[in-house]
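Before drawing any conclusions, I needed to go through one protein's amino acid sequence and its backbone structure tokens, quoted below without any editing.
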Amino acid sequence: MIRALILTHRWLSILLGPLFMLWFATGIVMHFVPFPAQTEGERFAGLAPLDLAVPLHAPAEALASLGSQPARRMRLMQRVDGAVYVIATPGREVAIHADSLAAADVTDPDLALAIARAAAQRRGLDAAGAAIAALGDYDQWTVPNRFDAHRPLHRIALNDADGTEFYVSSRTGEVVLDTTRFERGWNYVGSVVHWIYPTVLRRDWAAWNVTVWWLSLAAAIAAVTGALLGPLRLRLRKARLSSRYRSWHLWHHWAGLICMQFVLTWIVSGWLSMDHGRLFATGQLTASEDAVLIGVPDWSALTTIPPTGLSGDVREIEWFAFGGRLYQRARRALGQQQISVRDRATWRPVGRFLQPADINATADHLGGHCGRATEVEAGDDYPFVSDVPGAPVYRIVCGDAWYHVDAASGALLEKLDSSRRAYRWLYQALHTLDFPSLLAHPTLRTLVIVGLCACGFAFSITGVVIGWRRLRFLGIAARRKPAS
């Protein structure tokens, strides 16, 4: 049994030792420079005020032009070529010119360039030298699945001091991502290596999923066998515990015993990051839950534009369904908005955010076993935060299932059942150390993450050296073996 553990650990570690070393090193980089993403604040800062003085078709007319496709949400925003409705349907987003109801896809690179330049200027960036860089489905920074509804993407280089690049959706004409030279450079030695994320592999999600799942499973087995062997290879001599090894093996043995708990939990939790429903729930709604939380509202009621009760510079109007009712969200700034609900042919103001009464009215339809909506407080064991500063997130507990609703947008952030809650601790907490006690002290959390990853990196070096020596010894032995 011990011999089998030794051989399994030895050869898996020889094969995967360099990957262990890279994972720990890149984990430190990722903590400081995460994978490029556009924040809601950045997106909203690039929006222009709506020109509601121009005659526009009503939202219901825009929806009718799509035929029978069901809508989840729709937004009205101002582009350089006029006001546009962006309608979210299952699996894709569709843009329609609000003045003509013509398709508003962005196929013209010059239009994409004008959109990017205008958004950059509103964000205070230097766009004087902006130029079209490329049009494509995938590159290193747009491989995540969330960009599927926007492909192909126009890449616009601002050619500013920071090397900023914007990505404009060919489907909606929105800037959906921005990157800088600093982010790109550090992510090549951070997330790209850590996630095994080269474009050629990651663009095929299924192939990437299988590849990384098996690699991380093999790494988990190597960690588990090492954790088992560590104590077993100790011996008691003169009332003292000592190692059976010498030289680099000795360093590897003692370092492994010291780092064992962190290395084991970090590698196994890293494998769980690739679970994707294999062992744990995915947090997706069932069809019946979706029917209750979203519902089928009467979109044909949106017959007027501009909506009543709006004043000032509105940068975006959003209509969304929640609990079978229509809500209107008029946004002037990231934290300045007004939500109204369609009630008896009129819009009744709700406030800046959805109120507990709105959440509870929907929860009542989920079943009689649901409790009242409660706000997720700072320091909660299951933290959820809205994209809008100061907006609460409400939790509805219905037996085993917990639903988290963003009061700023009416969006369901996640459904947590017992499986998903266990996953939160076994993967997220153990891998990113987002324990509430550490989240409350960011500097301490940073020190702990960097310190533990540095220990893991040093420990991995000892394993790589041992593996190299083993391979070198086998190579020398093979060359010395006489020919038969």
The two ends are 34 Å apart (CA to CA). Residues 287-416 form one domain. The longest helix spans residues 442-480.
